[in-house]
Amino acid sequence: MTFKLRKLSHGLGAEVCDIDVTAPMSESAFGEIHRAFLDYGVLLFRNQNITREQHLAFSRRFGELDRHDAFPSDRHPTIPELMLVTNEPQPDGTPSVSRYTGRRWHTDMSHTLEPSLGSLLRCWKIPGVGGDTLFANTAMAYDALSPGMQKLIAHLHGIHFSGGRKLDSTAADQAHVAEQKKISPPVAHPVVRVHPETGRKAIYLGEKVKRFDGMTEDESKPLIEYLNCHSTKPEFVYRHQWRENDIVMWDNRCTLHMALGDFDQNERRHMERTTVVGTPSGYVVASA
Ligand code: OGA
Ligand code: MN
Question: How remote is the CA of residue 148 from the centroid of ligand 2, in Å?
């Protein structure tokens, strides 16, 4: 083992210690990182004071990067492979549309037919206190279900809706929500998703899912809420307290995450994300 790993919590996560992600890395060294990514679901790289190009280059080792066509207004103005998660106002002074990104349990790009393999979020600016991110291990959560419940959900599909981001009632915010809904029609994915690399089963839901295919919202809600609540129990969770120049990478196929809004909104929180494209999954639900 070339790198030292330090476990971050019982549920998931490991810090990759003493690494410079910009240094040349052999295939076998990268293979170890990739293995750790599959084993731990979340990897933390601290003290990576790197450029945007270096962030992209390291991310590309894991696969093709999403150009975020599903989130046109969240992109970096000149680098489409970078998605902003920021409360820094836009150049014209209007609030950033990404200021509330990720405030519910979710997994990235699950409202598309090519849900993400993994995301690499780099911290540029963090408030004095608060603004942590929670991660949950949904494969461990699946394993903890009873055989009866595993059987019950085995063939269900959850419908993931876009445009569910919490925003304000201003005209600009509402126009953004409407735009998102237009870009991404609802997409159904198996509730029990088999991880394409590890073969492990995981609960693939989150708060973008409003109902199961073939069932009403009223019928679906209790079970969706139960499974989301179960998946995010403390024993399956890691809470990341950010430092500047952290890069946290997570596996979108077997984890959920959520940004906490417990900080002074007058302070700046600025993150930038690359999104590695995953394997095709699911189908569009025309009449959702
Ligand atoms: C994301 C996201 C959480 C955060 O970038 O995909 O959900 O804490 N961010 O900023
Ligand atoms: Mn996210």
Answer: 31
